[in-house]
Amino acid sequence: MPFSNGSELSPSFILASLPGLEAAQSWMAIPLCSAYVLAVLGNGAVLLAVRAEPSLHAPMYFFLCMLAAIDLALATATVPRILCFYWFGSREISFAACLLQMFLIHTLSAVESTVLLAMAVDRYVAICHPLRHAAILTNGATAKIGLLAVARGVLFFLPLPLLLLPLPFCGSRVLSHSFCLHQDVMNLACANTTPSVVYGLTAILLVMGLDAVLICLSYLLILKAVLRLTAWRERLKVFSTCIAHVCVVLAFYVPLIGLSVVHRFGKDLAPLVHIVMGNIYILVPAVLNPIIYGVRTKQIHRRILSLIHVTDRAPR
Fold first, then answer.
1. Would 7 be classed as within a structural domain?
2. Where does the G-protein coupled receptors family 1 profile domain start and stop, copy by copy (predicted)?
3. Sign of the dihedral defined by the CA atoms of residues 192, 194, 199, 205, in that order
4. Tens-place pLDDT, residues 112-128
């Protein structure tokens, strides 16, 4: 029987469970919870380290703080709800809560993509125009870029839940993931979803797609500048400043592309594949980003160790 967002018949969706592993879901939640705790501790440590270390008060590390905050928000918008499902059997999610979660996931992903582009531009200016770097990327400009990233994400992805609001839903209410995504919810509608399909694809291409192209362009220009250097040692030294950012970009875009491919071509795949890919998309960047920058950035590494040392020596 169809229902809309205002219907009292069945105003909720059912989160996907692990097929064949329902009895073991409480145990399966432990690795998920561990990854979430690691993401919270790691990104929180990065935020504290940058705040406490004056030498890190620079655009690149402010962008890193933005990434940490986004990853914390994205993981917190999804993982606690998944854990409630796995541990307490709460599979149903209301229509309003599902739309809100969907909006947060897509918007925060768009903001993260914009910040990654800004970090690529920062690397380009620092390497190709080092004398102008301090004048172009000031702290004020960095703050404006952050606000612009948030505004861009909201403006592009706010229409997604609004396009789903008037649609009736019928048949199966079971989602493909343990959280709400636009494509997933849209596929359950029993009405014409062409406007939603077209707008969703357009938004993805104009935000994540365009950002990916511009990031690649930035690194092509960086590579061109690096190859102009005569000594291999100088080339490696310059390009080593980009390794952490390249790894973070891959940690974001590879799961995103994988999840998109699964949605587009994986209708015949096992449900477990959809669930695992969704969890990877949410948690891999949040877990890996602080590890990557903690290892590659000596100042962050030393400051985090000093914070841990101070905490251990604090009186109890």
1. no
2. 42-293
3. positive
4. 999 999 999 999 999 98
Mean pLDDT of the 183-189 span: 88
Three-state DSSP state, 179: coil
Alpha carbon distance 44, 287 (integer Å): 11
Q: Say which amino acid occupies 144.
A: K
Q: What is the pLDDT of residues 92-108, one digit of tens each?
A: 899 999 999 999 999 99
pTM reported for the whole predicted model:
0.90
Which residues lie across from 12 on neighbouring strands? 94
Question: For residue 33, is it within any domain?
Answer: yes
**In CATH, what number is assigned to the domain containing residue 89?**
1.20.1070.10
Segment 120-150, tens digit of pLDDT: 999 999 998 888 888 998 989 999 999 999 9
Residue 16 falls inside a structural domain: no
